[in-house]
Write a structure and sequence with these properties.
single chain, about 80 residues, Alpha-Beta Plaits, 4-stranded antiparallel beta sheet, two-stranded antiparallel ribbon, 2 helices, about 25% helix, elongated
Length: about 80
């Protein structure tokens, strides 16, 4: 299992949006968006857990992708990297 950092997410992105974006590359075990403790609002980044092979495929396909759209949510310049 590999944890993938996902950055530059729009504040409107939901865990379901991120799961849908990564699903074509394999089964998504966990999506966790980081929230601001004081405001409860998203901080624009999170983590996705997938098996190693699926994670590598997702990183290769999505890292630096400009203008990705998932459910009408724009991902202007997605940063994806393995941890």
């Amino acid at each position: 299992m590999k944890s993938i950092y996902v950055g530059n997410l729009p504040f409107s992105a939901t865990e379901d949006d991120v799961r849908e974006m990564f699903a074509p590359y394999g089964e998504v075990a966990v999506v966790k968006l980081v929230m601001d403790r004081e405001t409860g609002r998203p901080r624009g980044f999170g983590f996705v857990e997938m098996d190693d092979e699926a994670a590598d495929a997702a990183i290769k396909a999505l890292d630096g992708q400009d203008g990705a759209v998932v459910d009408d949510t724009a991902f202007p310049h997605l940063l994806v990297g393995g941890l």
